Amino acid sequence: MKNPLAWRNKKVCVIGLARSGFACANLLNQLGASVSVTDNQLNQATEINAAKLKAKDIKVELGKHSPGFIEGNDFLVVSPGVTDTSLPIIRAKELGIPAISEIELAWSLCPATVIAVTGTNGKTTVTTLIGKILEAKGKHVFVCGNIGTPFSAEVSRMSCDDFVSLEVSSFQLEKIVTFKPKVSVILNFSRNHLDRYLDMKGYLEAKKRIFMNQDNNDYLVLNSQDNFVNDLEKITGPKVVYFSEGEGLNPNQAAALTVGSLLGIEKELCFKVFDDFKGVEHRLEFVEEVNGIKFINDSKATTVDSTVWALKNVTGPVILIAGGREKGNDYTLILELVKEKVKEVILIGEAKERIKAALDGIIATRQAPSLEEAVRQAFAGARRGCVVLFSPMCKSFDMFNDYEHRGKVFKQAIYALAKSKNLV
């Protein structure tokens, strides 16, 4: 770790006590900072994390953001889910307290070579593939970021010879200052997060921050087949390199191959990694086959484009389970594929009425009060050879902690169903 003394005796307030906030608080405490944490959520998850931090004499408040937790700090470290309209950010601006993101904190301490991946869809898969390519080459690599393990949870173990394959979201990029990856990747860009950004331009500007500090010694990898993304070549700073699907590769594999080539990794080794890759959990993950009906977990699909991808890549009549928290999606984008491949749609969560309205007159829809009930309804309506695809198109936070929690609940419902059928 570089600059280990940089945060000693600094007074830092961490906003948010989910995964990244918890990791930040622990890291800052380890570095000798005076740390406090505030989260307006009061639930089992935040209480568990708070108890662990309080055992280290870290001050924590839950269920509110009181002014005393903001005033007098040298820095705020802001979790991705916290918007600029939240009370701590507004108060910090009034007091002139700098607010940075979790990846900015980790970057300030990181001695390793960072490859950062963003885009509307495919980030987790590409970040994972890059990590596996580096491992196959014999490199020591940390795969982290929005993919699951926070950057700040791993940075203390990194050295200058290591690599980081880092998934970064637009939310995480909003409050970077000096973050400067050696290779940045923008996979694609489509309508998303319009519950947070005023328009598509604002969302794109957040994504573009991934390369704002790069120079001519760095690389920006872009998708030549995405009109929004390939137009970014006009920027100055990093060397621009393009990828495109071909040679039997899908766009995710093509992006990883291009990054591999920049890092001096042989094409043959990359292809072997692709052949051996079984996918990532919660992304088109085959769960179980029950009485000839296949169940696929695509809980990671929080956009309509992700569900389009899923529908294009499954075979057989589909019963689609979708829904969750609204984020400004245009659900009409799935209409043609629904007509072609979907037998029935079962809707859950806060967005169910909006999705139903978008599909009205195209296909029959049903609503379920829970994901478990949706699974039962799907199984009851399916026939041998059908695929039950859980691809929500929405955020998870109306009913679940995150997409991983949501995917695990789906899988547990399938396993329970399989067990009951095997006992008959």
Can you tell me about this structure?
By secondary structure, the chain is an alpha/beta fold. Helix content is 35%, strand content 19%. It is built from 16 helices and 17 strands. The protein has helices at 19-30, 44-54, 87-95, 102-107, 123-136, 151-154, 170-173, 200-208, 227-230, 251-262, 267-276, 304-312, 335-341, 352-359, 371-381, 403-422; strands at 11-15, 34-39, 59-62, 75-78, 99-101, 113-118, 141-145, 163-167, 183-186, 219-223, 239-243, 285-290, 293-297, 318-322, 342-347, 365-367, 387-390. Strands 7-8-6-9-10-11 form a 6-stranded parallel beta sheet. Helix 3 (87-95) links the parallel strand 4 and strand 5 (99-101). The mean pLDDT is 92.
Oligomer: single chain
* Percent range for β-strand residues: 15-25%
How would you sum up the major sheet? Answer: 6 strands, parallel
Q: Largest beta sheet: what is the strand line-up?
A: 7-8-6-9-10-11
Based on DSSP secondary structure assignment, what is the total number of beta strands?
Answer: 17
Outline type = globular
